[in-house]
Specification:
Two copies of one chain form a homodimer. Chain A is mainly α. Chain A has two domains: about 5-60, Orthogonal Bundle (Arc Repressor Mutant, subunit A), CATH 1.10.10.60; about 65-200, Tetracycline Repressor, domain 2 (Orthogonal Bundle), CATH 1.10.357. Chain A contains ten helices and two strands; from the N terminus they run H-H-H-H-H-H-H-H-E-H-H-E. Chain A has helices spanning about 5-25, 30-40, 45-50, 55-65, 65-75, 85-100, 105-120, 120-145, 155-175, 180-195, and strands spanning about 150, 195-200. A two-stranded antiparallel sheet of chain A has the order 1-2. The longest helix of chain A has 26 residues, at about 120-145. The interface between A and B is large, with 52 and 52 residues. Chain A binds a DNA duplex through helix 3.
Chain lengths: ~230, ~230
Amino acid sequence: MMRRLSLEQRRAELIDAAIRVIARDGLATASTRAITAEAGMPLGAFHYVFTSREELISAVIEQVTDEERLAAWFEANLIGEPASLTDILVAGLDAYLRLLETDPGREQALLEVAMHAVRHDQPAVRAQWATYHRAALASLDHAAELAGVRWVEPVERLARSLTASLDGLTIAWLTDRDSEAARAHIRFIARSFAALAVPVVPAAQAPQAPQAPPEHPGGHGREDTAC
Amino acid sequence: MMRRLSLEQRRAELIDAAIRVIARDGLATASTRAITAEAGMPLGAFHYVFTSREELISAVIEQVTDEERLAAWFEANLIGEPASLTDILVAGLDAYLRLLETDPGREQALLEVAMHAVRHDQPAVRAQWATYHRAALASLDHAAELAGVRWVEPVERLARSLTASLDGLTIAWLTDRDSEAARAHIRFIARSFAALAVPVVPAAQAPQAPQAPPEHPGGHGREDTAC
DNA sequence: CCGAATGTTGGACGATCGTCCAAATCGGCT
DNA sequence: AGCCGATTTGGACGATCGTCCAACATTCGG
């Protein structure tokens, strides 16, 4: 029975079920039996699709790219009104925080799986890190374009800092569940990045020393006024 | 046999052994047998000291406060030479990064145990978070005093941001092991915090609007010159 | 120096794990 | 319709887990 599902469908459903189980009860309780039960499949279906539990975990890492974070970021700035870079960054970060508040277990699951991979599956964690990096790059480019600014530091560096800042934001909120403090931290992050951008002047297309930018103001556009 | 060890000594040695095992092979492999073997004790010694494995994990969380991070931070600024706030913060953060580079497994162990506690032992993780917060507070006060500045935002908020930034720094390095990029991120963090401090002027003890500080320069003292 | 009390231990137990495989089931072809 | 090869499955297996406890060792009052 159940011939109706193709191998790829079974594989995808098992991965989804695994994510739900890990989000609900943690990686330790995500046994082959728990996952197949969650997916409504017989136990034998597991090793019919995956050769081992480790392979399923690697598949989870590959599957769960940062698409949600990126989507939340971009959707947050759909409103076409012109805004300061700080506001744009705050909107993007706040969109991610709402995502985190909506489904904390999922983000915690991603963290648990990533930490597992750091120990036991270095290639997978490198790939996931690269995906995160691309998402951060796209977010920074998008924000700079919206605000009409350019970054005064290599955007590659800034992308890594943004990824690290997102992880820090996530861990802190998962630990104390203090959304108000998290939003204060978001403003801190946004202002920190905004301090590293300058308005793009159409005249100055000329090359400029990449390092040692010639004095850049703390912010730009609408100056930050409060906390 | 082995009557020589008191209950407290056994307890402490089991906790240390557990940390070593978790640091080496992860929380999942830290079984009662692995821990007692690491400690050079018979299996029975485990439930002679702890009532359950969960109790041991909680004890690990309580034991491993942030004393190492704090110690590294303060020792980094023992050299009494006057320095800019940015340099002081960089020195403290770099000291922590060296700690992380020296013993990555240990910091990863703390993260794994903390994530476990977020799911299964909320009180323990709250206590650990409070300890982290106190350490961050002390670090910020220490840095401000050394640099002769005061923070223009509530130091409580800044302490939480510092804790989150440290966690983000840790996760990023554990993931890509890129020490150079991590040090660039450290400079980013240091400058971000330095932007939120103003020189303390002995004359101006007068109250000042805590929020909306009257325009503060991006940095202070020695202006940041490069990346 | 010897029982009794205390402290200590290694093996036993039931549960659960990942993995495997022989049997059951199903879809298509004659 | 009835058989056959491919697909699917639930139970079996050995390993390992946390926990417990009867047996062992040690100490000490007498």
